Amino acid sequence: MTSTNYKSIASKLKFEGRAFINGKYVDAIDGRKFESINPATGDVLCSVARCNHQDVDLAVSASRKAFESGVWSKTAPEYRKNILLKFAELLTHHGEENAVLECVDSGKLIIDCINEVANDTPMHFQWYAELIDKTFGKVPPTDPSVTSLIIKEPIGVVAGVVPWNFPLMMAVWKLAPALAAGCSVIIKPAEDTPLSAIRIAQISKEAGIPDGVFNVIPGFGDAGEALGRHNDVDAVSFTGSTEVGGLFMKYSGESNLKSIGLEMGGKSPFLVLEDAKINDTLIDNAINSAFWNGGQNCSANMRQIIHSKVKDEFLDKVLKKVKKIKVGNPLDVNTNMGSMISKGHLAKVDGYIQKGIDEGASILHGGTSESNQKGFFAKPTLFDNVKENMTIAQDEIFGPVLGVLTVNSTDEALKIAKNSKYGLHGSVFTQDIDKAFYIAKNLPCGTISINTFSEGDIKTPFGGYKQSGSLSRDQGTEALNQYLQTKTIWISHS
Question: What CATH number has the domain bearing residue 186?
Answer without folding.
Answer: 3.40.605.10
